[in-house]
Write a structure and sequence with these properties.
This protein is α+β, with helices and mostly antiparallel strands and 567 residues long. The chain has 18 helices and 22 strands.
Length: 567
């Protein structure tokens, strides 16, 4: 089988927790959710702008720099050992993926202009785009791609487990010629091209081969990539500067540089945009959207997303190990109200952990739990949770009292307030325990000492690297402590499936199990929103998952950030 440019994964939980501190995991999960944390303030990029109140057009005094506001700092620009979502997004600015995605979310060529799959689906041969050079002038060849695959396999960084588990022995990876490399797999893996669009950032062999362990290399002083943006300098938790590579093989923007402004406080982020010192900002649905829309020369750009917001349940703790109680909770929750009140309508209520942004794999016909308080009360009573006054008792006679542990940032307190009230209306008493992000991660992700929690996942382009670590028994991020052998077997089968329709069937069945047994009560799929300085910049179509902040997608060598040009 051939794809042309024109036309497990269960991770070891103990190893992962040893490799990452609580603060690291916090940054990962906060990055997945996109929720701001901390109270830091931003820095000014040195340009003079106006909000338009003085009669000016509010645009930059210069149109050669794009100023993008991020809520979190970057620790390490390392494609093989990134720890947080900001780390990863910074790496994507300058390191290119082997593949990319089109506007429909399907895999297309990028560094690899085409690929062929063996008949059994257990080997891929990649043809590399000629003419790509690293930022130091060295050519990018099949040797670099082979070295990248070997490094992913040999060093097995937890977040790259989706790749390392299916790549065969590094010695079997073969460089056929200067621009052709063959990668044998341990089993057929139809998801590989899509997984590589997210996780397959190619690194230069002539630089990274000097590190004893690439996953531990900080490599942030002068990193060398091949993408459209060249690293210039950075100040920890303040800014990162990139210049545009005029020699880039693909499409380049009309501006000269990109400045990433690190501003932790949401209030300060919005103020920076309104005062004219920022050009692009990722927005939380329901927070400041109207303020951005009503400001002079600012607009909100909407796009589909692969985000899912959920109520996480510790299924290994009484009484939440009782599936009947979880079902009653699912019926008690009014998703429409939560989506509207908290997100101002910029969210779609749903049930499956796989968001509709992954259109081919999203099962829209799973069991559903439309808001039905009478059904919730009936399930509770039938299973021994008797009403006593305004609350209920468990079959043991003890009070039915649960604790919802949340981060004290973003929309979480509002969501928790609404859910606590809705569950209380059917007699399920819920106390909200709000804490700072590091403490929340220590309690939920590391110690797994919790009843209920709230979070949002930014799902990969393919569902496998998300579903496997989160829901398989040995999954690194299985904080629900969920286990279903039938689900695990379906995940193994979908990984081996070479027929897309058959793989879809396995994933549909896997979703049905999750919706039926409820390790998560999915609430909604938040929309991806960005604030743009419309007076100075042309917007373009966002890419699912990354929105406006992706350098790659739609067409090889292009992406929204590349296409966001000055007016």
């Amino acid at each position: 089988m051939k794809n042309d440019i024109n036309e497990k994964i269960s991770l070891d939980r103990r190893r992962f927790l040893q490799a990452t501190s609580a603060s690291t995991v916090t940054a990962m999960l906060a990055g997945c959710s996109g929720s701001p944390s901390g109270d830091g303030t931003g820095t000014n990029n040195g340009t003079t702008e106006s909000d338009g109140s003085d009669g000016s057009d509010g645009s930059s005094t210069t149109d050669d720099e794009l100023s993008v506001i991020w809520p979190g700092g970057v620790n390490n620009i390392n494609p093989l050992g990134w720890l947080t979502i900001p780390d990863y997004d910074a790496a994507r600015m300058m390191y290119e993926p082997l593949t990319s995605v089109d506007g429909e979310g399907q895999a297309i060529g990028h560094v690899a202009k085409s690929w062929e799959t063996s008949e059994d689906g257990a080997s891929y041969t990649w043809t590399i785009q000629e003419g790509i050079t690293w930022h130091d002038g060295e050519p990018l060849t099949a040797e670099d791609v082979a070295f990248t695959f070997r490094s992913i396999k040999e060093y097995d960084w937890p977040y790259l487990g989706s790749l390392s588990s299916v790549i065969a022995d590094p010695d079997q990876i073969t460089v056929e010629d200067e621009y052709t490399v063959t990668t044998p797999l341990t089993q057929p893996y139809a998801a590989l091209p899509l997984v590589l669009a997210d996780l397959g950032l190619v690194i230069p062999k002539h630089i990274w081969s000097e590190f004893d362990n690439p996953t531990e290399a900080s490599n942030t002083e002068d990193p060398i990539g091949s993408g459209p943006f060249v690293f210039e300098n950075r100040e920890q938790d303040q800014f990162i500067n990139f210049s545009v590579d005029d020699e880039y093989w693909g499409e380049v923007p009309d501006y000269d540089s990109v400045r990433i402004e690190i501003i932790a406080s949401t209030d300060s982020q919005v103020l920076t945009m309104k005062e004219g010192s920022g050009d692009m900002l990722r927005l939380q649905p329901g927070q400041y959207v109207e303020e951005i829309e009503s400001a002079n020369n600012l607009e909100v750009v909407e796009g589909g997303s692969t985000y899912v917001t959920y109520l996480g349940i510790n299924t290994n703790r009484e009484p939440l190990s009782d599936e009947a109680l979880r079902k009653a909770m699912a019926y008690a929750v009014d998703r429409d109200t939560v989506a509207e009140l908290v997100n101002a309508g910029y969210a779609t209520p749903g049930y499956s952990p796989v968001p509709p942004g992954l259109e081919f794999y999203h099962n829209s016909e799973t069991s559903s739990y439309a808001h039905n308080q009478e059904q919730a009360r009936s399930i509770l009573s039938e299973n021994g949770y008797e009403q006593q006054g305004n609350s209920r008792v468990m079959p043991s006679g003890d009070p039915l009292e649960l604790v919802l542990s949340i981060q004290n940032t973003g929309n979480w307190p509002r969501i928790a307030e609404v859910l606590s009230r809705q569950l209380g209306e059917v007699g399920i008493s819920v106390e909200v325990n709000s804490m700072e992000s590091n403490s929340h991660t220590q309690k939920v992700s590391v110690e797994q000492d919790y009843d209920l929690t709230l979070n949002t996942w930014r799902v990969w382009f393919d569902p496998d690297p998300f579903l496997s670590p989160v829901f398989e028994e040995e999954g690194t991020l299985n904080t629900s402590q969920y286990h279903n052998e039938q689900f695990d077997e379906l995940m193994r089968q979908q990984r081996r499936a070479t027929d897309p329709e058959k793989r879809q069937e396995y994933l549909y069945d896997a979703q049905e199990i999750l919706v039926d047994e409820l390790p998560w009560v999915v609430l909604y799929y938040p929309q991806l929103l960005h604030g743009i300085r419309s007076s100075a910049w042309e917007s373009t179509n966002p890419i699912p998952r990354y929105g406006m902040q992706s350098p790659y997608g739609h067409e090889p060598g292009s992406g929204p950030m590349v296409q966001l040009d000055p007016k």
